[in-house]
Amino acid sequence: MIFMLNKIDHIGIAVRSVREVKDLFKSLFNLNPDFEDDVDDQKIKVIGFKVGESNLEFIEPLNDQSPISNFLKKRGEGLHHIAISVDNIENILGEFKTHQLKLIDEKPRTGVEGKKIAFVHPNSFNGILLELTQELK
Ligand code: ZN
Q1: Nearest-10 Cα torsion for 82, 83, 84, 88
Q2: What's the pLDDT at 1?
Q3: Residue 103 near residue 38 (C-beta atoms within 8 A)
Q4: Residues 6+ apart with CB under 8 A from 88
Q5: How many angstroms is it from 59 CA to the middle of ligand 1?
Q6: Which of 55, 62, 111, 131 is the most exposed place for a label (fewest CB within 10 A)?
Q7: How many A from CA of 11 to the centre of ligand 1?
Q8: Nearest-angstrom CA–CA distance, 137 and 128
Q9: What are the backbone dihedrals phi and psi of residue 45, each rounded to the nearest 5 degrees, phi first?
Q10: Handedness of CA 106, 42, 76, 33 (dihedral sign)
Q11: Average pLDDT value for residue range 35-61
């Protein structure tokens, strides 16, 4: 089976305060975020800026239970994940499973802006936390 990797959908960056990022982008580029979203099941607040076809997403934990909160404690602010846009997320997850990749999400869940998303463990992907995203049709 052939899978299309459409583009880098976004790069996720863990931050302590999206407010500070907003202020920085405002003063540096006179830019406001292209979107802002709270994803309650992941306990995160996200702001995004368009960069060409992709987005930079800045992610702040909403509380101590957020996976981003653990990340910040262990590693500090910085690159958290890379997201690739695909057309058939379920099929790709099935293929990854066949190849015994370690999946964080065996089935897609709902991410920012209602997209289908699923994460693949960094141990299966050269140390990169990989996110697959699929646009809603
Ligand atoms: Zn993401």
Answers
A1: 140
A2: 65
A3: no
A4: 3, 134
A5: 9
A6: 62
A7: 7
A8: 28
A9: -115, 135
A10: positive
A11: 94
Q: How far is the CA of 10 from the centre of ligand 1 (A)?
A: 6
Beta-bridge mates of residue 14: 59, 78
Segment 71-130, tens digit of pLDDT: 999 999 999 999 999 999 999 999 999 999 999 999 999 887 788 999 999 999 999 999
pLDDT tens-place string over residues 3-31: 889 999 999 999 999 999 999 999 999 99
d(CA 108, CA 86): 12
Distance 137 CA to ligand 1 centre (A): 19
Question: Could you tell me the distance, in angstroms and rounded to a whole number, from the CA of residue 91 to the centre of ligand 1?
Answer: 19
Amino acid at 77: E
